[in-house]
Design a protein that fits this description.
By secondary structure, this protein is of the alpha/beta class. It is built from five helices and five strands; from the N terminus they run αβαβαβαβαβ. This is DsrE family protein.
């Protein structure tokens, strides 16, 4: 009787533990960085590259949200093109904070269409965190 009972417990643990492990192994690792300085994009891209190597096939999305007064620099299309190219190379999505664009008088037409604009970068960052993204603000 004890053997039957112990065998049943082991069987139940095996049945319920494997789906949890399988689910954890297949989840993608997603990242978001909120920055207020354009030059920080260089080390952010290096970080994305390293994490992509470490995570392998579990590497998911990597988004960079640009907020604050630095959004004025997004209108310098020549300077920004090198960052846009690196972002594409490292599979990083560039996001501009619409609230900052409005506050500092930057017309959305004056920035590259490669930038996705969200209405509120801070709110968007928190929403991604709720979805399980690993986040850091610089």
């Amino acid at each position: 009787m004890k053997i039957y009972f112990l065998s049943s417990i082991v069987l139940l643990l095996t049945l319920f533990a494997n789906p949890i492990q399988a689910q954890a192994q297949h989840e993608k690792e997603n990242y978001v960085v909120l920055t207020k300085k354009i030059p920080q994009l260089e080390p952010i891209f290096l970080t994305a590259e390293t994490l992509a190597e470490e995570d392998g096939k579990n590497f998911g999305k990597f988004e960079v949200i640009i907020c604050g007064q630095t959004v004025k620099e997004l209108t310098d299309k020549e300077m920004m093109q090198k960052y846009i190219n690196k972002a594409k190379e490292h599979n990083v999505e560039l996001v501009a904070c619409g609230f900052s664009l409005n506050k500092f008088g930057v017309d959305r037409k004056d920035i590259s269409p490669k930038f996705r604009v969200v209405e509120n970068g801070i709110l968007y960052n928190l929403q991604l965190q709720k979805k399980g993204y690993t986040s850091i603000s610089l």
